[in-house]
Amino acid sequence: MPIVALYNPVCGDGTAKQVFEDTVLPLLEKGGISVSKVLVTERVEHAGQLLHDHLENLEGEATVILGSGDGTLHEIINYLSTTEFKGSRAKAPPLSLRFALVPCGTANALYASLYPPTDPPVPEYNLQSVKAFINNSQTIPLTISITTISSAPSERKKPQALVSAVVTSLALHASILHDSEVLRAEYPGLERYKVAASKNDTRWYHGHLKLLPTSSSSAQQYNPVTKQFEEHDDSYEDSPVVDLYGPFAYFVSTVNVDRLEPAFRITPLAREHPTEKGSMDVVIVRPFRAPNITMDTEELRKSFKDVVWGALGAAYQNGGHVNLRYQKDGTVGLDGDGKFVVEYVRCGGWEWVPDDVDERAHLLCSDGAIAEIPKGGRAVSTAATPTGNAGFKVFV
Ligand SMILES: Nc1ncnc2c1ncn2[C@@H]1O[C@H](COP(=O)(O)OP(=O)(O)OP(=O)(O)O)[C@@H](O)[C@H]1O
């Protein structure tokens, strides 16, 4: 059973090499684990190919000690999900890949969700998944969301498929990730997301969203009053699909995580109300739910900015955005009986058809990688949890 180490030397603050040489590899050696190879990524989108080529002629379940952020994991999962093996592994059963994660990236959303930070911090916080592997502890299967981006039917183009293990987003979050990449050199830490957010906080995004059912139920909406997931307000008995119309300010869907940064708990219920297999959590903010917003004007967009920041700020307060509701004057608070600011949905997937004229509504973020939905096209994202032995797993 092959065991390899792989790290991205430039992710986060660029210390993965040092972390592996000083702590991870000595710890594995002390634990009696022999690593057959240490692979180091040399360029963007190298990780998947590097691992694929290494595993091609090795058989059996493989373990990767992965030093990276979420983006490198995303590259590996995408590459291995879409590329066939040619060597001796081609005839073997489907690959089962187990990860021991070492958080070396900027946000490390998956690691921080599996190991929420504590005060005081756990000693050797970053080595918990590696220790779980050494101790032959349990693995959990990773749910993936498979997003298909199609062109207008008249184009007759093959759809593009993207596989995410953390987040698939549209609207403000996709715009932030799009703009933050150019800020990486100037702001190597999390600050670049805040800078990019401030450039985008008055944009609204136009399109039509459908929420798709899981294998067992139509989209469920969280009710903060009963603290339960319930039938969606906009669902109809005769259809398992829920239609939502824009404009939209914020949209993220997540799998496997309750946070996108250690303190940014944007889908907190993924932890508090554990998800069923093949489902994702979706957080949406639509301006027209506010009592004082009835049309799309520059002035109202500017005023709505405070609502968006209020909701995102509350997500940093242990996921408090879920309980925020509109007051009569359109401000947000915890009291009253106004609509909830955030629509929190658990569903099997979604379909997004952006308005042709709204360029930014065509941006889609898949674990930090940005894709563009062509004019006249759409994106469909569905969650899948592997059953049986194949698929991707993480030591916890
Ligand atoms: N040798 C390299 N030179 C330049 N870029 C690289 C190299 N190796 C990998 N990369 C790229 O580095 C990028 C960042 O990696 P990753 O997403 O893992 O870390 P991060 O962005 O710092 O953290 P996070 O995703 O947790 O916020 C990836 O897009 C990957 O393609």
Provide structural commentary.
The chain has 396 residues and is an alpha+beta fold. It folds into two domains: 3-137, 3-Layer(aba) Sandwich (Rossmann fold); 144-384, Tumour Suppressor Smad4 (Sandwich). The chain has helices spanning 16-30, 47-55, 70-82, 109-114, 128-134, 171-180, 191-198, 269-272, 298-315, and strands spanning 3-7, 37-40, 62-68, 96-103, 139-141, 144-150, 160-164, 167-170, 207-212, 220-223, 228-231, 242-245, 250-254, 280-285, 325-326, 332-333, 343-347, 349-354, 363-366, 369-372, 378-384, 391-395. It has an eight-stranded antiparallel beta sheet with strand order 11-10-17-14-13-8-19-20, covered by helices on one side. Adenosine-5'-triphosphate binds at residues 8-12, 41-46, 68-72, 75, 105-108, 368. One of its GO terms (molecular function) is lipid kinase activity. This is DAGKc domain-containing protein. InterPro entries: ATP-NAD_kinase_N (IPR017438), Diacylglycerol_kinase_cat_dom (IPR001206), Lipid_Phosphate_FormReg (IPR050187), NAD/diacylglycerol_kinase_sf (IPR016064). It holds the Pfam family DAGK_cat.
